[in-house]
Design a protein that fits this description.
alpha/beta; Rossmann fold; four-stranded antiparallel sheet; 10 strands; about 35% helix; globular
Length: about 250
């Protein structure tokens, strides 16, 4: 992939639509989303259950194909890529952090971190590896396997793995969902520092207002559409906005 991120914009979507199910009434998960995500910034995506936020993340990351519309990561338009080139772009230019750590149990922490490079037949840059490992605080845990690490440490391995290829963008889907509050705070600090210190672009789906407050921008979804946003948010502002978006309880309940 020779394309590079467009100046100022890491990911963009135009008229993005995604529907599930056949018949006269399919479920509309995305209803014509237009979105630009700034390079070198931390963006959080929030909304009520079923609002389309995870579907949006999966389409932006090339994990799922939309029914209509376009997605660009950098200058690469995903719809124009065949399966092989899309796989290469995800491997080389996109980092992923999920709620489940997705580490290989037989590999050490270091081997899990450099796995994307090993799959590509590339050697890690020793200086970058040291910088990433130091940033996530795993220098003395590199020889440990996942079963020998706490949940927070395993997620830090996953963050390091997402950063090791110097991706154009890191997508994080509920990255603190399986962690206690202290470990979750550590992972959020790492993602924030990846943006501030390493110049990374991070896009995170979360349901947690405290997590979203680490972002530079929070975008809110409802019924498959973008309906609001906050810049430099506080947890209180996020909570107030979410409360306005939650559907009213049915009468009599």
């Amino acid at each position: 992939m020779s394309a590079t991120p467009t100046a100022g914009v890491a990911v963009s979507a135009r008229e993005l639509r995604k529907e599930y199910g056949a018949g006269p009434q399919p479920v509309v998960a995305l209803a014509g989303v237009d979105l630009d995500l700034a390079a070198g910034r931390f963006t959080a995506v929030m909304g009520p259950s079923g609002s389309g936020k995870s579907t949006l993340l999966h389409c932006l990351a090339g994990l799922d194909r939309p029914c209509a519309g376009t997605v660009r990561i950098g200058a690469a338009e995903l719809a124009r890529l065949d399966d092989r080139r899309l796989t290469l772009l995800r491997r080389d230019r996109v980092g992923f952090v999920f709620q489940r750590f997705n580490l290989l149990p037989t590999l050490t922490a270091e081997e899990n971190i450099v796995l994307p490079l090993a799959i590509a037949g590339r050697r890690p840059d020793p200086d970058w590896l040291r910088q990433v490992v130091a940033a996530v605080g795993l220098t003395d845990r590199l020889g440990h396997r996942p079963a020998e690490l706490s949940g927070g440490q395993q997620q830090r391995v996953a963050v390091a793995r997402a950063l090791i290829t110097r991706p154009w963008v890191v997508f994080a889907d509920e990255p603190t969902g399986n962690l206690d509050s202290r470990s979750g705070a550590e992972v959020l600090r790492l993602l924030r520092e990846a943006v501030d210190d390493l110049g990374q672009t991070v896009v995170m789906v979360t349901h947690d207002p405290v997590a979203a407050a680490h972002a530079d921008r929070v975008i809110f979804m409802a019924d498959g559409r973008l309906v609001d946003e906050l810049r430099t948010p506080t947890a209180g502002q996020v909570l107030d906005t979410l409360a306005r978006l939650e559907p009213a309880p049915a009468a009599g309940r």
